[in-house]
Amino acid sequence: MNAPLTVTSLNTQIKSLLETTFLEVYVEGEISNLTYHSSGHIYFSIKDDKSIISCVMFRGNSKYLKFKLEVGQKINIRGNLTVYTPRGSYQLICSRIEPSGQGALALAYEQLKKKLQEKGYFDSRIKKTLPKYPKKIALVTSPTGAAIEDMKKVATNRWPLVEFILVPTLVQGETAKTDIVNSIHYADSLACDIMIVGRGGGSIEDLWAFNEEIVANAIFKATTPIISAVGHEVDFLISDFVADVRAATPSNAIEIALPDINEHRIYMDNLQQEFENRFKNIIFTKHQNLLHLKRMYEQNSIESKFNLISAEIKMLKQSFDNSFANILNSFENNLKMLKNSFELSNPKNKDKKGFVQLSKDEKIVDLETLKVQDIVSLQTPKYIATAKIEAIKKQ
């Protein structure tokens, strides 16, 4: 397992990734939290109705600023993103700032955008959903531009099963807007799954045909789901807002429109592996169930019961034999004890020279209990003598 990153290392990596990814951004927003620092740097934030981002314009660039920034002012910024590593916060480093809405094209853009938004052209609820596996895609773009080659290359690597229909279209110049509209109408009649309308990057003047109202109307009225893919990431055209999906670039449009065949290969491999694992688990479970049933059958079979009863009979017989042997041994021991006791009590065994049994009135007594004139019997195993006590003397 890899060692965890330090906070500094993580922030440094984020800084490197952010700064190399967003080499230049073009952002519009309203000024807030404005501070003119004594060093000549300008610190502020720009915001829209949902988000805010910190900005700074250093003295080297701020001295070329032609107007004074004010809170609430709407501006356009060109710059790059950076991360302040000690705090882990990111900010926009401004290289150029212009008042928003200045110029005929910018004003026309804002006016048309507002008009179409009020008409509901941008409503997400009416956006058409792209099919997951398109079979045929119409490309409304220039046949000679770099965009078409980029799209073909991405499609070949991503999902070669799709069919493309190129609708050659002028994408720049005075007549471009009309040609784009006609191409959209034609592509819409081809019953394709998706239509991609776009071109490669260029200046605002080069891209302006996609900001025309008649192009927006054609996109809005088309029945085929449309992806708008005009210019670069920083370029936002009216066609982007009206289309069902906006792509940052023509290549990105192909990535959005087509599934990734490699992901599906991995998915299929995972499905196969999961199937094999589940199949093995099922087989294993069934095998264990069979073994359990077999053991149950063996335990409850007639042979098993007979063996059990036979074992119980043997055990009872053995218990009987042991009990009977114990009883015999007990009787034998008792007999031996009685015999020993008898042998010990047998008068014949007590017949020793000089020893007799003393009794009085047919009861064995001790010599100490006798009195003078008592009549006693002196007995050996063979003889009995009667005597009279003449005297008793204590030794």
Automatic annotation (TrEMBL):
Residues 121-353 form the Exonuclease VII large subunit C-terminal domain. It catalyses: Exonucleolytic cleavage in either 5'- to 3'- or 3'- to 5'-direction to yield nucleoside 5'-phosphates. The keyword Cytoplasm applies. The keyword Hydrolase applies. Residues 5-98 form the OB-fold nucleic acid binding domain. GO terms for molecular function: exodeoxyribonuclease VII activity; nucleic acid binding. It holds the Pfam family tRNA_anti_2. Its main location: cytoplasm. GO terms for biological process: DNA catabolic process. It comes from the Bacteria. GO terms for cellular component: cytoplasm; exodeoxyribonuclease VII complex. CDD domains: ExoVII_LU_OBF (cd04489). It is found in: Cytoplasm. Keywords: Cytoplasm, Exonuclease, Hydrolase, Nuclease. Its EC number is 3.1.11.6. Belongs to the XseA family. Bidirectionally degrades single-stranded DNA into large acid-insoluble oligonucleotides, which are then degraded further into small acid-soluble oligonucleotides. NCBIfam families: xseA. Heterooligomer composed of large and small subunits. This is Exodeoxyribonuclease 7 large subunit. It comes from Malaciobacter halophilus. The lineage of its organism: Bacteria, Pseudomonadati, Campylobacterota, Epsilonproteobacteria, Campylobacterales.
